[in-house]
Specification:
Layout lengths: L1 E4 L2 E4 L2 E3 L10 E5 H13 L3 E6 L17 E6 L6 H12 L5 E6 L6 H6 L4 E2 L7 H7 L16
Length: 153
């Protein structure tokens, strides 16, 4: 599968592991609930670890663990749920998370520009044929009136 990461289309090495599935080696992402339950086992594994956060989850629940997490997946259940934007802003702005923040789920390719402004640097779209258009959407505007994560410092 391909994704957009750091303004490039790349092959993705990450796999999401459902809560009831066996863990495996490699680049794996798990739910916040599974992270909380199996954190010590995950940290001892030979895997790079990602955590998937939904809109109702609290970013504060993983703030102390961010140094151990290489990927945060922000899962959109519906494109109109704006809480994911707040999660990204908190991860980058308040907690200074430097790893990959990836939008997944039901967001629109038209939202990638705005997601990038709050700190999302990777996008997993449902239709890979939409990747080139979404990539071009990252350059929709050259002038901005508001601050972003990029120009806060």
């Amino acid at each position: 599968m391909q994704i957009i990461k750091d303004k490039q289309i790349i092959d993705d090495s990450w796999s999401y592991i459902a809560d009831d599935a066996d863990l495996k080696d490699g680049d794996i992402s798990v739910s916040l609930a599974r992270w909380k339950k199996d954190k010590q086992m995950l940290l001892k594994s030979n895997s790079r670890i990602g955590v998937r956060i939904g809109p109702a989850d609290s970013v504060e629940d993983i703030a102390a663990d961010l140094k151990d997490i290489q990927l945060i997946e922000l899962d959109f259940p519906a494109f109109a749920d704006g809480r994911i934007f707040s999660h990204a802003w908190l991860l980058r702005g308040r907690y200074n998370y430097q790893g990959e923040i990836r939008a997944t789920g039901h967001f629109m390719r038209d939202q990638v520009f705005y997601l990038s402004r709050v700190g999302v640097n990777a996008f997993s779209l449902e239709k890979t044929e939409d990747l080139p258009v979404a990539l071009s959407n990252l350059n929709d505007f050259s002038v901005n009136y508001q601050k972003s994560i990029v120009n806060l410092r």
